[in-house]
Amino acid sequence: QNMALAHELNKADNKGPLSEESSGAPFGEIIRDYKPLPNTIWRFGKPNYTRVNKTYFQHRTKVHKEGSLEAVVSKIVKNWEVESHHIADIHQWQTMDIKAFQAAVNGGCPCNAQLMADVGPYNMLLGETKDYSGGSQSFEQSNKTFSATFPEGFAFECLEVFSGPPNVLFKWRHFGPYSGTFTDKNGKQYKGNGEMFNLIGMCLAKVNEKLVIESLDIYYNPEDMIKPLVSTLVDTSQATLGADEGDSKTAGAGECQPGASNCSVM
User: Fold this and answer.
1) Mind listing the pLDDT tens digit for each residue in 105-164?
2) Checking DSSP bridges between strand 102-105 and strand 213-219, what pairing results, if any?
3) Residue 266 — very low, low, confident or very high, per pLDDT cuts 50/70/90?
4) Is the separation of the CB atoms in 68 and 159 below 8 Å?
5) Element (H, E) at 84
6) What letter would DSSP give residue 255?
7) Strand 181-183 relative to strand 189-191: parallel, antiparallel, unpaired?
8) Which bin fits 24, alpha (ψ -120 to 50), beta or left (φ > 0)?
């Protein structure tokens, strides 16, 4: 989600503020103003958003007026992404109320802050689909998978806000050129055609008076994320690799296991 690319991260460079380039300033607009706490440790190394910012500014469909609800929501989500992808210690998070925070997909079983920090946003949001298994990918593996899929970045934009705080309902778009290689849950690799990938969804975010996130209810079809990625095999001899009857089943992201209180990605 709008994340810095895994192959550009340096684990040794794990402290300090984001660069001016990551904020969007060189493009004439501050779209990300996240300021880490002094003790913050970057999970994979300090993120660099230069490449994904370029994709965002080149291919966004909306330019929102500064101070508008859409501009405010966009910045909150981009700052939330910084934490959820790149800061492992939830006690160093600032965009979320970690005691109250819950995230759910399509009305499924909610995940708390620690669970999301453990499994990662990609796995939490995607769950189990025909070609992707959030339960068998680690946080780091999922980041590498989608960095390889979208080497020019996978950007986020807020399209429209329907209601303001405290219950913020908005429509969103994720996008980026599919110019890399996607590896499915069976190890089959698919090559992109360079065309723009678009994913549309809705989110109901509950925030407090300081615009700190208390809950996220996300609505979209996870198959819309994965299905377009699996059209062209790199090696056609892999066509039957891992294929079986069970592959046709899709478990919605965030579904509860029978009798369990955790998300299906666990």
Assistant:
1) 999 999 999 999 999 999 999 999 999 999 999 999 999 999 999 999 999 999 999 999
2) parallel
3) very low
4) no
5) helix 69-86
6) P
7) antiparallel
8) left
Q: Which amino acid is at 43?
A: R
β-bridge mates for residue 156, sequence order: 174
Return phi, psi of residue 122, to 5°. -60, -50
Q: How far apart are the first and last CA of the chain?
A: 20
Q: What are phi and psi of 208, to 5 degrees?
A: -90, -170
- Report which secondary-structure segment, H or E, holds 105: strand 102-105
Question: How far apart are the C-alpha atoms of 43 and 134, rounded to whole Å?
Answer: 19
pLDDT > 60? residue 5 = no
CA nearest to 80, candidates 259, 211, 234: 211
Closest among 238, 221, 127 to 182, alpha carbons compared:
238
Round to whole Å and give the CA distance between 45 and 59. Answer: 27
Find out whether the peptide bond into 151 is cis, omega within 30 degrees of 0: no
d(C-alpha 5, C-alpha 248), whole Å: 31
Does 18 score more than 50 pLDDT?
yes
Percent of the chain with pLDDT strictly greater than 70: 86
Higher pLDDT, 80 or 12: 80
Query: Per-residue b/e over 99-108, b at no fewer than 16 CB within 10 Å?
Result: eebbbbbbeb
Instruction: Tell me which of 203 and 247 has the higher pLDDT.
Output: 203
Give dist(CA 112, CA 258) in Å, integer.
18
Residue-wise DSSP of 185-217: TTS-EEE--SPEEEEEEEEEEEE-TT--EEEEE
User: What pTM was computed for the model?
Assistant: 0.88
Based on C-alpha coordinates, what's the Rg of the chain? Answer: 18
Strand partners, 47: none
